[in-house]
Amino acid sequence: MVIEARPRAALGHGVSMVGAATAPPTRVGAPPGAGAGQDRDMATPVHQDPAASGLPAHEIDAEFLALPRPALADAALQTARDLGATHADIRIERLRDSSLSFRDAALESRHEGATVGLAVRVVHGGTWGFAAGVDLTPDEAVRLAREAVEMARVAAPLNSEPVELAPEPAHADAVWVSAYAADPFAIDARERIERVGGLCRTLFAAQDVDHVEGRFEAVMENKYYADLAGTSTTQQRVRVLSQIEATRVDPGGGFETMRTIAPPVGRGWEWMVAGPAAGCWDWDGEIALIPGLLAEKAKASSVEPGPYDLVIDPSNLWLTIHESVGHATELDRALGYEAAYAGTSFATLDQLGALRYGSPAMTVTGDRTALHGLATIGYDDEGVQTRRFDIVRDGTLVGYQLDRAMAARNANVLGVERSNGCAFADSPGHVPIQRMANVSLLPAPGGPSTEELISRVDRGIYIVGDKSWSIDMQRYNFQFTGQRFYEIRSGRIVGQLRDVAYQATTTDFWGSLEAVGGPQTYLLGGAFNCGKGQPGQVAAVSHGSPATLFRGVNVLNTRREAGR
C-alpha cells in the first residue's frame, strides 16, 4: 500500500526568561513516499516539556536591545497618564524579512528589508485612541501619546460602546524567544541562494519537468510592549517558508503541477538543511520524488463526481481547519465587527455550548504556545500571557478566540475572566486586532495510523497537500482541492486521480468525521500570510491535524465544473 509517510520532528521549545510552559510538538518531516510503508511513529504524547527539545536558547537581537525602549515607554506612558488615559500601551517593533524567488534554474529576485517603528494606544473617556510613528525619540513618543489621546477625545461622541478591557496580571520585564537552531539572517545570502536554487535546479533537470518555480522567505519579528499596569515584554520569533513547484506541459498545451508539501514553520535555517535526523524536512528526498509523482498525476484518470469516503492528510486538512474553524471562531467575526474582509461567521455567540460543529471525534484547540507554531509567542500585543484553550470539544462549540475588549464585553456569556491572548498587529503602523491562534484538530491517543484509516475505506480518496479553495461569506459552504489524490478501493490505494475537489457545508463536513489518527499522524501545517481587517493586516498561523477519515463527502470534478 502506498502511504505518504513522514518522520516526526524533534521537539522544539519557546525559551522564556520567566518560566517555560508545556506545549504540543509539531510533527514534521520527509516527503510523501512512493513506496509501501507504515507511518513512522514518534513515540511521544502530544504535549512535551519544552526543555526536552535540545534546541539552543537565543538572546534577543543586540540591535533591537540597543533601541531606547524604556525611555520611549516612560515618555509615552507618563504623558498618557497625565492626560487622563485609563489605559495606555506602547509597542516598539522591528520586522526583518528576506525572500528569494526562482524561475526554472535561475534566481529571479532577492529582497532584504526591515521595518522599525513605535505605536501608542490609549483608552481615554472609554474610547480608543491610536497613533504611530518611526522616529524613535522620547519627544516623538510624547507626541504620539498626545495624538492618541486627542484621537480618543474626537471619537468619543461617536462611541456607543465604552471600552472595557478584561483584567490581566502584570508581567514585568518578561523575555521570550521562539525555538530555532539557526538564525536565517545570520546565514550568508550565497548559501541560501545555493541551497534553494540547487533544489530548483535538480527538479528542473528531471525528465518531463518543463518549468520550476521556487521561493524562500524568512522573518524575524522583535517586539517590545509596555503598559500602565506594569507589564513590559521583549520578544523575538523567527519563521521560515519554502515552496517549490514543478510544471509538466503536455503536447496539447495542457499542464499539471505539483508542489512540495513542506509547511511553513516557526523555525530557522535548520529547516532547510538539517534533515529528518534533526526533525526537519527532507527536501532532497521530496524533490527526488516529485517528477515521478507528477508523471503519474498527468496520466491519472479524471475523478467521477459523487459521494466518497475521504482520508485526508494533515498537509491538506490544515487549510480546511483554517477557513472553516479558525476564521469562523474569531469572536469579532462572529459578532459582525469583521465583515468586509472575508465575511462574518455562521458560528454566532448565541450558539455557544449548543452548536454541533462536528462529530464527537472533533476536538479543536487554539494554542499560541504550540511548539514551532507560526502564531506562537509568549505574550500577545496587549500584554496577555498566551495559552491553550478549547474551541470545539467532542463536536460542540465551546469557545472563541478573544482579545481583551471582546473578553470583557462578553464575559458573562463566555464564562471567562481573561483574554486568551489573540491580539496581534502586523506592524508598528497598525492597531492590534483579534487574530488567529494556532487552531488545531487534536489526534486520538492511541489512535490509528494513516494506513489503518485507509484500510477502513471501500471506495474513497486519500488527499495530500493543499491547493485552491473557496468559502462563502459566513465560513459555511466551501470546496477544497489538493496536490495529490489517491483512489482507494477495498482498503487499498490503487493509483492517482485528478480533477478532484471536495465540497460541503462546515457542519455537514465535520459531522461526517468518523475517526482521527493517532499522534504519529499529526502534522502542523500553516499559512505564512493570512489576511484580515481594513486596513489589511497579515499574520502567520499554524494548524495541526492528524490524518482523518470522513464518510460520504461530495466530490466534484473540477474539469467538468469549469466546462472543459
Automatic annotation (TrEMBL):
GO terms for molecular function: metallopeptidase activity. GO terms for cellular component: cytosol. One of its GO terms (biological process) is proteolysis. Gene3D superfamilies: PmbA/TldD superfamily (3.30.2290.10). Residues 306-555 form the Metalloprotease TldD/E C-terminal domain. Pfam families: PmbA_TldD_1st, PmbA_TldD_3rd. Keywords: Hydrolase, Metalloprotease, Protease. Residues 21-53 are annotated as: Disordered. Residues 88-152 form the Metalloprotease TldD/E N-terminal domain. Belongs to the peptidase U62 family. This is Uncharacterized protein. It comes from Frankia alni (strain DSM 45986 / CECT 9034 / ACN14a).
